[in-house]
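Chapter review: from sequence to fold.
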Amino acid sequence: MAAPLNLLDFDRQALSAWCGQLGEKPFRATQLFRWMHQRGAGDFGQMSDLAKPLREKLTGRAQVCALPALGEQASSDGTVKWLFDVGGGNAVESVFIPEDDRGTLCVSSQAGCAVGCRFCATGHQGFARNLTTGEILAQLWFAEHTLRRRFNSQERMISNVVLMGMGEPLHNYGALLPALRVRLDDHGYGRSRRRLTVSTSGVVPMIDRLAADCPVALAVSLHAPGDALRDQLVPLNRKYPLAELLAACARYLDAAPRDFITFEYCLLGGVNDAPEQAQTLVRLMQTYRAEGLRAKFNLIGFNPFPASGLVRAAPERVRAFAAILSDAGIVTTVRKTRGDDIAAACGQLAGDVQDRTRARERMARRRAAAAVAFHRKQPAAAAPA
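The C-alpha cell string follows.
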C-alpha cells in the first residue's frame, strides 16, 4: 500500500483536485483546508463537519505530517528558535521574533544552502537538499498553533512570514510557490502579500517568474556596491552580476505589493563598510532609479561565527555608512539584532546538514585566496636605510 500523502504539500487548488479523485466536491477540500491551517487540526477525527465517509476515505490515504521539533531555545529578548528534524540526519531552524506591533516567523526553505555566502553560517555548512512544500509550511503550521496554545489565544500569533531562514528560496521554486499560495489563501493563513517576504541572493530568472506567478515583498541580499567585492561575498554574483540583478529588481516593482525593494547589507569590518563604498552604493542606486528602481536598505550587523574569518563593523562605521545613504535620500534602517544569544540572528542559522557539496573545503580555499589578494594590495614595507 502506498504511503499516506502529506496534505501539507497541497495548496487549496491541488487539494481540491485530489479530493475530486476521491469523488468529493470542491467545498469539502475547502473545509479540510480550513481545519488544517486555520484550526491546526492534524487528526481527521477532529474535523467534525467533514462527512464521515470522507473521513474514512482520508484515513490511511492521507495525513497531516508536521515536522518533529528536536529542540527549542528562547532568547532573553523574547525570540524563539526551533530545530526541526527533516530526516536523513538533516535539521533546519525557524525563528519567531515578537514585537509590539507584529510577530514575525523566519522560515527555512532548504537543508543547507548551495550559494555559499562568506558571512552566512548556513552556507558554511553546505547543502543537503530542498525542502518539500509540506516541510516549508510545517514550520508555520507548528509555530502558529504552538504559540496559540502556549498563550491560550485564538488570535493570530504570526502576522509576518519571511523566507530568510536556511537556504535560497528561489533555488527551490517548485516547492516555494504552493507554500506562498497557502500563506496568502483566505482559507489558509490569510496573509497579505505585503506581509510575506521572499529573500534572495539574486537568482535573476526566478525573480522574474515570481513577479509573474505570485508577487510578494522581495528582499535582496546585496552586501557590496560593486561586482568585484560581491563576487567574493556572494558567489552567485558571478552568474548574475549587479547590472542584471538590479534591472530584474526594477522590473519586479511593476507587480510588487510594495513600491520598493528591500536590500539587505551586512556590514563587515574592513570589507564593505568604508564611507567610499557607501558613496559608490548611492551612485549605483541613483543610476537604477532612472529605470524605476526604488530601494530601502536594511543595514545588518554581522553576527560572527568561527569559520567566517570576518568581524563586525564598528558602531561608528555603521552610523557613518547609514548617514551617507540617508543623506542621499535612501530610506535606511539599522536592523536591531535579535536572538544572537541563541544563534538565531541574521546569518547564524545552521541546523544540521549532511553536506553534499564539500562547502567547508570550498570556503577555506576562498578565504585563503581572499587573504592572498588582500596582502598583495598592501604597500610594500620601506627598505631599511
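Two observations follow directly from the output. Residues 359-377 form the longest helix (19 residues). The mean pLDDT is 90.
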